[in-house]
Backbone:
């Protein structure tokens, strides 16, 4: 169970981080992804960060890289994923899917001296090859305040689906 901080700000990284600042960060990321700006997206991560999408049977407290995941990228794999998605080698996304992301219910939860856990709900609408799909779930991120703004240390997308439909692909960033 995640402890929710009922205030609109926390002290982290030597400064105050506000919920509106976190919301703006997540909204900007959604816009970057919907415009397929993967260099801009990668710039939102600190070096050494992780990107995870656990399987649909995930439960809070489980380790996605020990219990199974759709995506379990360390820093090197994350950079390789961005490079591939930007190339013509990403056949499943050439041409790109059309996506539209909604982010809501942003909450600040646990924090340490240098990082902040953030929870939020998402819906990602995806149009591809004549199909329209909705992916719903929640984010469980670990953010780090830097001189250049917030950065991801961990970006985790947890699907709310019981299972994915036959033929469903996570060939885009969720």
Residues:
């Amino acid at each position: 169970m995640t402890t929710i901080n009922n205030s609109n700000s926390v002290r982290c990284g030597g400064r105050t981080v506000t919920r509106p600042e976190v919301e703006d960060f997540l909204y900007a990321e959604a816009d970057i992804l919907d415009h397929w700006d993967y260099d801009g997206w990668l710039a939102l991560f600190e070096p050494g960060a992780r990107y995870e999408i656990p399987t649909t049977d995930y439960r809070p407290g489980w380790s996605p890289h020990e219990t199974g995941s759709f995506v379990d990228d360390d820093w090197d794999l994350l950079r390789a994923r961005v490079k591939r998605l930007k190339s013509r080698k990403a056949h499943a996304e050439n041409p790109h899917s059309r996506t539209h992301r909604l982010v809501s219910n942003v909450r600040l939860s646990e924090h340490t001296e240098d990082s902040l856990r953030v929870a939020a709900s998402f819906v990602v609408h995806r149009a591809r090859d004549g199909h329209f799909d909705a992916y719903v779930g929640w984010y469980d991120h670990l953010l780090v305040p830097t001189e250049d703004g917030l950065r991801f240390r961990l970006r985790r997308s947890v699907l709310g689906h019981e299972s994915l439909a036959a033929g469903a692909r996570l060939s885009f960033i969720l």
Observations:
- The longest strand covers residues 131-146.
- The chain has a mean pLDDT of 88.
- The CA atoms of residues 36 and 96 lie 8 Å apart.
- The helical segments are 19-34, 38-42, 64-67, 75-86.
